[in-house]
Amino acid sequence: MSIRRALPSLTALAVAFAASCDTQPDYGLDAIDSMQTPPDDPSLGCGVVLTPDSNKATDRAGCTYSAGAHPSDSLGIPKSTLAQIPIRHVIVLMKENRSFDELLGRLHDLGQPDSEAVPASYANPDAQGNPVAPSHAQTTCIPFDPEHQSAAMARCVDGGKMDGFVQNAAATTASDGSFAIQYYDDTDLPFYYWLASTFALGDRDFAPTVSGTYANRAFSLFATNAGVVDTGIQYPPPNTPSIFHSLMNAGFTWGAYSDGLLLSGTLDWAQGDPGTHTMQELYDALDKGTLPNVAFVDGRENYEDDHPLADLQLGEAWVKKLYDHAVASPQWQRLAIVWTYDECGAFADHVPPPSACRAVPSGSPFTEMGPRVPLVVISPWAKRHFVSHVVRDHTATLRLIEALFDLPALTARDANSDALLDMFDFSCGRDLSLQPAPAAGTGGCPNPSPPGTD
C-alpha cells in the first residue's frame, strides 16, 4: 500500500515546485560504488579507556573549535586511543517527526528513573486559552500531521515557553490540536521502551534547528543547514563538504538504505544513485558481515518511518527486524546503531531548546536548536541502562563518526559537538549478553488506513 505524506498546502506547493525543477544534483560520489570497505582489525577489542579532558567540554561550550578540527583536539582523547575503539561500523537510523515527550516521556516512571520526567504542571493552552495537559494517546496512527516548518516551529517553541504545540496543531489540522500533547508508553511501544531502557539513552538531544526535515537532516550530513530552511524548497549545493566526502577521502565506505525516500528525500536521491541500496541489501550485509563503515537507514515514508499518518507500531516492528539482524550479525561486536529522529514534527516537548555554535564557515546563521528528540545508542559497547544528560544535536553523531575514522570537522558546529562517547563503555569483563527483546506492539491502530491514505 502506498501512503503519501499529508503536507500543509504551502509546503506541498514548495515540494511540487522543487520536483518540477528537479535536476538530480550530482554530489560527485560515484566512486563509492567501487570502493571496498577496509577489513576490520581483529585485534580491536575491550580495554580502551577514554579519559576526556573536562576542560575540552568547556572549550566546546564556548565554540572554541573551528572547521577542520580533529576529534583528538576537541575531545581531549589522543588519536592513538581513538584508533583502538572497537567500533568500525555505524548505522545512523534516523526516523521522522516525533518528540522525546511523546515517545519516551513516560520512561522515567517505567523503568528508567534517570530519564527526564514530564513535569506534572506542564500544559499547553488550546485555541480558547484553556490548559491542555498531556494525556495517553488512544491510537498509534494519529490521522493528523501538524505544520512543522520554521514559522510553525517558532510558534510551538514560543521563545522557550514550549506552549504553542496545541494551538499550532489546531490551526493547521482539522482537529482541536490536543493530539499534539499526547504520549505513548510501554503498553503501546514495548520494543522502543525496551531499547531505551536497556541501552544508552540521551535525554538532552535536540534537533539542530527550529524547522522541519530537510534543514535538520542537512545538519546531520553537512554539519550545517546548507542553505535549506524549510522542507521542499531547495536541496543543499552539491559542493557542500559532507560526511560522505570525508569518509571516502579517508578510504572508508558508506551506504544509504531505504525502500522509500533515501535520506527522507533530503538530497533528492533515488535508487541507482551512487551508494544507494534497498533494505534487503542492508539485511544481507548484516547477515554476511559486509556492512560499510557507515550506513544511513530510513523507513518508507508515512509507513515505517514513524511520520504521521504512519502507525507507530509498524515502524517499531521495522526497527525490531533491523535490530534482530544486527545482533545476529558477525559484525555485531564492531557495530553501533544510533537511533534518533530528525525533528519533533510539532509534537510537544517541555524542555526549552538551547543554542549551539554557528556552523561557520558555511554561512548558516542558525544557532537555536529545535525541540528534543529521542536518541538511543544500541551496541554491545553501549552502557547498559544508562542516561546521558549531555546537551547535543545531530552533529554529535557526525562527531562520533569523525572520531572513529579520524576525520576533520566539517564546520564549527560538529567541531564543538561531543561524540556520544559518554554513552559507551569499552572496559573488559562486562556482561555483554542480552535478554530477549519484546515484540513490537500491536492493536494500537483501530483504523489501519487513516484519512488521507491510499
Helix content: 25-40%
Just name the CATH architecture of the domain at 48-116 and 185-423: 3-Layer(aba) Sandwich
Radius of gyration: 20 Å
Instruction: Enumerate the strands of the largest sheet in spatial order, edge to edge or round the barrel.
Output: 8-7-9-1-10-11-6-12
Q: What is the overall pLDDT average?
A: 92
> Main β-sheet, in a few words?
8 strands, mixed
Q: What is the overall shape?
A: globular
The CATH class of the domain at 48-116 and 185-423, by name, is Alpha Beta
Residues in β-strands, percent: 5-15%
Number of distinct helices: 14
In words, what does this structure look like?
The protein has an eight-stranded mixed sheet with strand order 8-7-9-1-10-11-6-12. It has a two-stranded antiparallel ribbon with strand order 2-3. Helices cover 26% and strands 9% of the residues. Residues 1-22 and 450-454 have low confidence and may be disordered. By secondary structure, the chain is an alpha/beta fold. The chain has a domain at 48-116 and 185-423: Alkaline Phosphatase, subunit A (3-Layer(aba) Sandwich), CATH 3.40.720.10.
List the helices and strands and how they pair.
Layout: H1 9-20, H2 54-61, H3 71-75, H4 79-82, E1 89-95, H5 100-104, E2 124-125, E3 131-132, E4 135-136, H6 150-157, H7 165-172, E5 182-183, H8 190-198, E6 200-202, H9 213-222, H10 243-249, E7 254-257, E8 276-277, H11 279-288, E9 294-297, H12 312-328, E10 335-341, E11 375-378, E12 386-388, H13 395-405, H14 412-415
Parallel strand pairs: 1-9, 1-10, 4-5, 6-12, 7-8, 7-9
Antiparallel strand pairs: 2-3, 6-11, 10-11
Helix pairs in contact: 6-7
